[in-house]
Model the fold of this input.
Amino acid sequence: MKHSFKRPAALLLAFLLVFCALPFTAFGEYENTYINTGDERRDIIGVAKTQLGNRDGTKYTAGRGNIAWCACFVVWCARQAGVTEDILKDNTWADAEDFGVRYFSKEVYTPQSGDLIFFDFEPKNSNTPMSAYGDHVGLVESVEGDTVNTVEGNAWSSKNRAYQVIEGAYPLSSPKIKGYGLVEYGTEFQSPVSYNAVFRVVNSAKAARAGAGEAFAQTRELLPGSTVSVVGYVYDENSMLWYKTAEGDYTVGTDLEKTDAAAFPPSDYIETTAQTLSAKTVCSHPNGSSDTLKKIKKNKTVEISGYVYNEYGNVWYRVKSGGYIYCSDLSFENGKVPSNSITEVFTVRANEKILKNAPRLSAGRTRTLWRSATVNAVGFVYDRDGSLWYLTDNGDYIYSSYLAAQGESARSEYEDRPFVCTDEKAAKSAPLSAAKTISVYKKSAKIRACTRVENILGEAWYETTDGVFVSAEKLSCDHDYDGGVITKKATCTEKGVLTYTCKYCGKTKTKAIKPDPGNHSALTVENAVPASCNKCGYSGDTYCSGCNKLVEKGTELPALEHCDDNRDMTCDNCGRAFSTPENCRCACHRFGLTKVVYKIVRVFWKIMKIHRVCICGEEHY
Done:
C-alpha cells in the first residue's frame, strides 16, 4: 500500500519540477519574436502583432505605472522595430504633436502601413480641425478598399471583455476616426528644392548616387576638378545636404564647392546684432573649412544680415561686412535666436497649441497655450521648409497657422476662405514646389485655406485647415456671395438687376428681376383743362408711356372767381376789365335782396369804421 502511494506522488513531483522549469513568459509577458528587416514601416507592424492579446500594459509604460497605455504601446513597438526618437518621440498622449509627426484629417489623407491613427470617440473640438488631439491612438496595419486595418494597445475587446492589444478594422469614413499621423521613416526623403548653379568636385573622386542618402546605389564617379550642374538640393533624414545634378542623381554637399563666391543656397534676411563669446573666425563660406576672412575678438559686436543652413544642417549667420560665423559662437540679446522684428498681438485659434524652443517641428516643447489666449509676437522667421513661425516675447516659437491676428497684420497673412481647384493639384507636406506629396486634389475639388504663406523661393502657397499645403497656382476663389443689392429697379416693361458681390475677392454676378407691373416709368398727362373764372377745369388723366396703361384718373378743378388784388380794374385770373360798378358782377353790386343785405352790412362797417372796397374800386361807404 505504501509502495503504490509513492509512485503517484513521484509522478506529481516530477510534473511540478517540469512546470517550474518552464519560462514564465509562456504564460505571462508576451515576447517579441519578430525579426526586423530594415523596412521600419513593415517592422513596426510585425512587432505589434506579436503582442496581440496582451492585457498587461505596464510592460509598455516604461515604469510610469498603471496609466492609459495606447500611446506607450506605439512607442514600445517603434523602439523594438529600430525607429529612433527623432522619427517618433516617446509620448503618453494621443497627440500628433507630442509624437513629433504631422497630423492630417481623414478627409485629405489615405494612411500607409506604419502611420498612426487617432480616434475621437467624443469629439471635443469640432470647430478646430487643426487640433490633432484624440482619445485613443493605434497603428495602421493596412488599407484595403474602404477599410483601414489597425493594431491597437489598451483597446477594448468585446470578445474577452478586457482592455488588451487587438486588431481592428474600420471604414475610412468612420466617425470614430479623427485623423492620421504621418511618420517620416528613415527610408523617405524630401524632393529637391529648385536651384541652379555650377559646382566643382573637390579633392578625390566622388560618387553620385541614385537618391539623397548613403543607402542608395552608386550611379557614377565624379573626377576631381570636374564641374557639375546642380538643379536642386535636399536635406536627408540626418540633415545632411545633397545636391541633385542635371543628370538626375545626387551628390553629398561636402563633395562639391561652388565655382563662384555666391552664397549657397538663398539665406533668410535678418538685421540684428550679436556679441562673440570668444575670439572667433569669420569664414568666406558657411562650412567652417573655407578660407578665413578675419578674426573677431571676444565680446565684440557683430552686425548680422542673414542666416543659412550648411551641408550638415547647422546654422551659420552672415556677417554684414562679409563672411559667415557659426551660430554657437554668438550671443544674442536675451539669448534669443534673431528674427525679423515685429510688434503684433495674436489670438490662439484652437485648443492646446504647443510652443517650441526653435522654429522646427522637432524642437522641444516649452509650454502650452489654450484657445483665445493672447500672444505677443516680437519677431518672425521662416524654417527650412519655408513655414512661418512667430517669436513670442517669452523667447519661444509658435507656428503661424495656430494664430489669428488681432486687427490688420502684414506678416501673419491669416485667411479663412474657400477655394476650388481649376486643375488637379497635389497637397504637400511643406510649402515648397517639390516637397513631398501627401494627397491629390482633383479638379473642381473644394479647399478651405487658413493661412497664406510664401516659401523661400517666393512662391505663394495656402495651408488648408487639414494641415497640408497647396500651391496658389490654379486655385480660384470658391466665391461666397452676399445677399445682393438692387442696382437697377424693374419697371412695368423692363427687367431689373440684382448684383451679388463675393466677400473674399470682390467679384460680382448679376441676376435679372422680373418686370414690376406697379412700377411705371415715363408718365404723361392727357386731357387736362385749366379752370377759369366761373368755369370748372380738369387735372387730366395720367398714362404710362411704356405700357399705355391709365395709371391715375384725373379730378375736376373748381372754377375761379374774379380777383383784382392789384386794383387795376382787371381780373387777375381771366384778364377781364372792370370799367364801372354796373359792369362789376360782385355780389355787392347785384340787384334785389342781395344788394339790400350788403347795404345793411355797409352801415355796420361804417359804424365800426371798417373800410371796404369792391374789386371794381368803389368804396362800400
